[in-house]
Amino acid sequence: MPNPKGCLVDQVGWIPVRGVDGPKEVPLREALLDSHTFTELLPDMPTMLPVLLRQVLAPVVLDALGDVDDELWAELMDEGEFTTEQRRTISRYLDEHLPRFSALDATAPFGQAAGLEHPGGKVHPVSVLMPHVATGNNTPLWDARLASDPVPLSLGAAVRWMLHAQCWDTAAIKTAAVDDPQVKAGKTTGNRTGPLGRLGVVTLLGTTLFETIVLNLPQGVRAAGDRPQWDRPPMKPSWQLRTPTGVLDLFTWQGRRLRLVADNREADEAVTVRWVVLSAGDRIDGPQPEDPHTCWTIRQDKNKGSARYPRRHLPGLMGWQGLEALLAIERDTVGYETSALLVQTATATLRGDLPSDYPLRVATCGMVYGTQDSIVSDILTDDVPLPVAALRADHAVRGSVIRVCEQARTLARTVDHLAANLVRAVGGEPAARGKGQQPGTKLLHALDPLVRRFLTGCQRDPSDDELDQAHKAFETLAERAALAAAEELLHRLPGTAFSGRTVTKKEQGKTVTHTYQQASAERFFHSAVRKTLTHLYPQMAAAEETAA
Fold first, then answer.
1. What is the pLDDT of residues 425-434, one digit of tens each?
2. What is the pLDDT of residues 351-361, one digit of tens each?
3. DSSP sequence for 327-375
4. Are 318 and 381 in contact (CB under 8 A)?
5. Tell me: the pLDDT tens digits for 61-98?
6. Is the pTM value of this prediction over 0.70?
7. Within 10 A of 11 (CB to CB), how many other CB atoms are there?
8. ∠ Cα 153 155 158 (to 5°)
9. Nearest Cα to 90, choosing from 57, 55, 131, 124?
10. In sequence order, what are the beta bridge partners of 204?
11. d(Cα 418, Cα 476) in Å, to the nearest integer?
């Protein structure tokens, strides 16, 4: 079968990868069959990483190879590449669906609604798909190019950003599509963000693109009728409210109706896109589905019993500050639960299908929306080394990495308490928590490379003695950083802090007197630091246990 115009399988290079010869963009077939030769995906921005995995790479493998159980998963990871027969199967699958992977097809363009139009032929600049580029009332994060002069994108780049909009687009009012019966005054209201916009996305990263794809393949039996978007009837302008039939449907969910307006469509290589038609897309009916790319917060609800909510990432926090949720393998009635992908990784480790020194990394990303989710206020991303041994409840590494992350946070809080007491000692009142820059935040940034170095070291599955030495080394450097942060605060103090001040106030109906002085603030600070660093000061931990 000849390649259709704009064929994403063989003709258009659009999957950005890093190979032995450097960065490049390759067609879909090459990205999959040669995935073991590429070290990683090179997305335009971090939020593009789960988009490429969910919208294309993982669904093609899942649909072509069939259900993935623990045995097949282990075989794939052990081989490190697709077998000859699996390569043939994937190639046949792509050949069978070749027409649906044409970005310029007249009747069923990939990821688009053919013939989609706005009243009066209105089009949007292609920058409307890109949250980091100014357009309309969207907040420009890094770029201030005018929306009336959109940068022309290559066809491959336009397809990537189209899929990104399917996953992350804002919930703003959308211009109505012609022939959409669910239109009010020429607009569609009540739009939700793209499905990933409601999650704190967690993506697993391996040492090659192949391993990354396998690590992000959900195991289990496919639900009846579950199909990816390219195996469904071509999209119509009207959107639907429905429930995803399964993981393939969820991964390739069409959160928007889109049509790329391509320039010089007849050219062989120079097809560009400057304009796009964008309207409302399908909405998920009911609660958030069991998405394998997010952690969960579990609360007791009076009406629903134990209720699960996607755990979103918080601004200002490094990825390791949510390590407890990433390591919450056991389902609990209240608390956290990690992503389904990490649960299967933990199970593979217990079975011996994944070595305990495997260099697993976790990429976290999320979007912060503002003004009724109609603009992008911030993009949250991180890349954290995660020791596979920490996924095992019986392994010493687990408790140690959790302890190190908690020590870093505690030291930051201790510095904040010191700052607050010093402010009181000179007659002021500290800023409320969350207001203004806290000195503990600066300390966390200083501790960040120390925590990451510790996590990376634990990926080698250290012995108990090596783990103990590494923990002591971390505490030594962490203490040094905390003392430097305290010294910076003390250096700026006026002389009145030495004598301090006494404050009398009512607390719970009683008159209480507090004396705030530099000396007592320093004493409390040093005591708290020693209590926190249990490997350097084991006598303090022993004293606390005795007192308890």
1. 776 666 666 6
2. 989 998 999 99
3. T--S--SSEEE--HHHHHHHHHHHHTSS-TT---EEEEEEEEEETTTTE
4. no
5. 999 999 999 999 999 999 999 999 999 999 999 999 99
6. yes
7. 20
8. 60
9. 57
10. 362
11. 20
Which two three-digit tokens encode residue 147? 């929306």
What token pair was written down for 454?
């510790």
The residue whose two tokens read 């064929």 is 7
Interhelix angle 439-458/464-491, nearest 10 degrees:
170
When computed from its CA atoms, the radius of gyration of the chain, rounded to whole angstroms, is 27
**Structural domains of the chain sorted by starting position, each given as residue range(s) with its CATH number in brackets:** 1-392 (no CATH), 395-548 (1.10.132.100)
Rounded to whole angstroms, the Cα distance separating 133 from 150 reads 9
Give the span between the Cα atoms of 254 and 145, in whole angstroms: 28
Name residue, tokens 């090179």.
42
Cα–Cα distance for residue pair 400/478, rounded to 1 Å: 15
Three-state secondary structure string covering 158-199: HHHHHHHHHHHCCCCCEECCCCCCCCECCEECCCCCCHHHHC
Mean pLDDT of 299-306: 74
Of 511, 520, 506, 495, the closest CA to residue 421 belongs to: 520
Distances (CA, A) of 382 to 158, 206, 376, 467: 25, 15, 18, 25
Residues 340/204, Cβ–Cβ less than 8 Å? no
Round to whole Å and give the CA distance between 241 and 224: 19
In Å, how far from its chain's centre is CA 245? 24
d(CA 253, CA 273): 23
